Amino acid sequence: MALKNSSKPKKIGVVGVGSFGAAIANMLAEKNEVMVYARKEEIVEEINSVHTASGREINPSIQATFDPEELCRSCNILFFMVPSAAFVDVVRRFAPHLYPFHLIIHGTKGLALNLGPGESLETVQKLRRSQILTMSEVILQETVSVRVGCLAGPNISKELSLGQPAATVIASKYNEVILEGQRLLRSEKFQVYGNSDIIGVELSGVLKNIIAIAAGAIAGLGLGENAKGLLISRGMVEMVHLSKALGGSVQSVIGLAGVGDLVTTCNSVDSRNFTVGFRLAKGETLDQILSTMDEVAEGVNTVRIIDAFIKTAGIRAPITENLHRVLFEDLPIAEALHFLMKYPFSVDVDFV
Ligand SMILES: NC(=O)C1=CN([C@@H]2O[C@H](COP(=O)(O)OP(=O)(O)OC[C@H]3O[C@@H](n4cnc5c(N)ncnc54)[C@H](OP(=O)(O)O)[C@@H]3O)[C@@H](O)[C@H]2O)C=CC1
Ligand SMILES: O=C(CO)COP(=O)(O)O
User: Fold this and answer.
1) Which protein residues touch ligand 2 with a CB less than 6 Å away?
2) For burial by CB atoms within 10 Å, which of 90, 149, 294, 313 has the most?
3) 322-333 pLDDT, tens per residue?
């Protein structure tokens, strides 16, 4: 059924009620009518009857559905809050029900691949930029939506759920998307900045996860705060070079969604990426860690994608390269650190 402008729906939709989706849905519900989508019938029933989602508190005013069509019919603004590994599938499920009037903002800090049929990261010889998609690029590729934005910043969901003060960036080529995001989310406890460099903001949120895994490893090895400061500063420089190579601006990396989130994630035991590094340093294997984590640590897959890209593009990104060897090539962490300490970094800041 085609929707006319006069019948434009008014609720705000949230797709995915995991850790971050639940936190954002609750914040949106403070001043808006909200409907959430969960793929499992039992989660929908849990939300609608006892107002929790897998035990996470959900504002009692929030309604849930497992029908993408109902969500798209009821809402004109949708927040996609699912991990990157599921993003293409989820967007394809929603695509038949989306119209150009729908405004979409996503909060996903991961990448997808745009490969040919039967191809995978293991089989492609080279990984070019055109074969890597940010989540806004997935939405634009898979749907008729045009007004697309992302939400990124230092936003550990546990802290947001406790009502602790924080800020985020809404990035979009369309000022209207930024203004809507600010109108919906801004509060006394939550500041919302705008940025027109959506690719740079998405990449900032994606790339900081790599450095956060390394920060967790440094903490797990008990190497101290000097080493952490060294990693964060070299990590920021690496993020700038990678982001520029992938189409983002320097300014976005040194802003809230880049350096702001980098500092938070590199210091928080509530960060899943930090936790992966910490547990690796304590001697667990990657398989052991991932099989016992309930929530997604996007940085692991991001390391694989970025490592393949830099090898193709001929870029040096020593932290990512060494982390790839630790995660996927059995290099002991101590050796990776030894290698990094000998790496001939000589210029402090070389991107301005
Ligand atoms: N948690 C945080 O502090 C923050 C997270 N982010 C980003 O947000 C994104 C989501 O993270 P987070 O909420 O923590 O992840 P979680 O692992 O907590 O939750 C993921 C959610 O996505 C749903 N989901 C997974 N696969 C599918 C699918 N195929 N179809 C429909 N729904 C699906 C899950 O549903 P089900 O229960 O059915 O599996 C679950 O509700 C990530 O990219 C993360 O980097 C960004 C900022 C902060
Ligand atoms: O991006 C986040 C906070 O801004 C959450 O980080 P983790 O995915 O590592 O938990």
Assistant:
1) 109, 154-156, 209, 212, 261, 264-265, 271-274, 298
2) 149
3) 999 999 999 999
120 is in an annotated binding site: no
> Which tokens is 26 given?
């609750």
Query: Is 311 marked active-site?
Result: no
For the record, the structure tokens of 54 come out as: 């897998």
List the beta bridge partners of residue 112: 133
Residue 271 is assigned to a ligand binding site? yes
CA 265 – ligand 2 centroid, Å:
6
Q: Is 109 annotated as a binding residue?
A: yes
Domains and CATH numbers, the chain: 9-196 (3.40.50.720), 200-342 (1.10.1040.10)
The owner of tokens 């601006």 is 249
Instruction: For residue 100, give every residue at least 6 positions away whose Cβ sits within 8 Å of its Cβ, in sequence order, or none.
Output: 144, 145, 146
Within 8 A by CB and 6+ apart from 12, the residues are 28, 32, 33, 34, 35, 75, 77, 78, 79, 184
pLDDT tens digit sequence for 68-119: 999 999 999 999 999 999 999 999 999 999 999 999 999 999 999 999 999 9
> Which of 272, 289, 293, 294 to probe ligand 2 with, by most ligand atoms within 8 A of CB?
272
What pTM was computed for the model? 0.96
- Contact status, residue 133 vs residue 107, Cβ threshold 8 Å: no
